[in-house]
Design brief:
single chain; about 280 residues; mainly beta; Immunoglobulin-like; 2 helices
Length: about 280
């Protein structure tokens, strides 16, 4: 009988699940002689997959010694199998145990595991709200996508800012909301996060959006956020002037007709004519 550290392997498989590249998972297994005669174990090995390693020296009763000395009836020995994926994808293989069991001289156990390498991508990689009137709200959307292999798990999203709280985060907003953490984005999937800017004081306001995930290269991603406040009475139409107590000038486009203007024009003409005669 062969059994492992999670349950008896009656169905002859040992699942390791999805494991991120660079990590490892170890399973402890045991072989028990349930017969009436000595059990000789001549080999315990996996196929050529380098992502699995068998250690016959592991546990309280290592199976390495059993290969030299047979297992007595009722006796057990232990060994371990370590799964450490080196590339993304499926890593299923077979563990083979060879013994002198007359009914099952070759016992096979399916080792099931996958290597994952999630890769987070943010678009855009920074947010600029531009100029927003004080007290009004502007919204921008971030698209979070998984361009790697295996599921991307986002465990935390937060804002870091100084001074008044000018920004608010809404992971349930946007066209395809990510929702609340933990957020799991499948391979090739994406979702959206909405960020709102409501300026309450004058000047430029900056913040940093932080996203924590299981991306092996960028487990903590920072996105810069900026926006400017415009006072409510700041009228951008400066050439209309005279409004709201502000400065500016007034341009009178249609001045009224002055009845003295033709007479003044006639006197000016007579004066110029006399000046020419005197020069002659």
């Amino acid at each position: 009988m062969v059994h492992d550290d999670i349950a008896p392997i009656d169905d002859r498989n040992r699942p390791f699940g999805d494991l991120q590249l660079g990590n490892s998972s170890e399973a402890q297994l045991a072989i028990t002689n349930q017969g009436m005669q000595a059990l000789n174990i001549s080999g315990i090995s996996t196929s050529t997959r380098s992502s699995y390693t068998v250690d016959l020296t592991s546990g309280s009763d290592p199976c390495l010694s059993v290969i030299i000395t047979p297992l007595s009836p009722g006796q057990s020995c232990t060994f371990s199998v370590t799964f450490a994926p080196d590339v993304a994808g499926n890593h299923d293989t077979v563990l083979t145990i060879i013994s002198n069991d007359p009914d099952e001289p070759v016992v096979t156990i399916d080792l099931i595991g996958s290597g994952i390498d999630p890769d987070i991508n943010i678009n855009p990689n920074s947010l600029d709200f531009g100029s927003v009137i004080s007290g009004q709200e502007a919204s921008e959307e971030l698209v979070v996508s998984n361009i790697g292999s295996g599921p991307l798990t986002i465990s935390g999203i937060g804002l870091i800012y100084e001074g008044l709280e000018q920004y608010s985060l809404d992971p349930t907003g946007g066209t395809n909301p990510c929702g609340n953490t933990p957020i799991i984005i499948p391979e090739g999937g994406e979702c959206t996060i909405s960020l709102n800017f409501t300026p309450q004081s004058a000047g430029t306001h900056t913040a940093t959006l932080v996203i924590i995930s299981n991306d092996p290269d960028e487990d903590t991603l920072s996105i810069s956020v900026t926006g400017n406040e415009i006072p409510p009475n700041n009228n951008s139409d400066s050439n209309t002037g005279g409004g709201g107590g502000g400065g500016g000038c007034t341009v009178q486009r249609n001045a009224p007709f002055d009845p003295l203007f033709p007479g003044l024009l006639l006197l000016a003409g007579v004066y110029l004519l006399r000046q020419r005669k005197m020069q002659c």
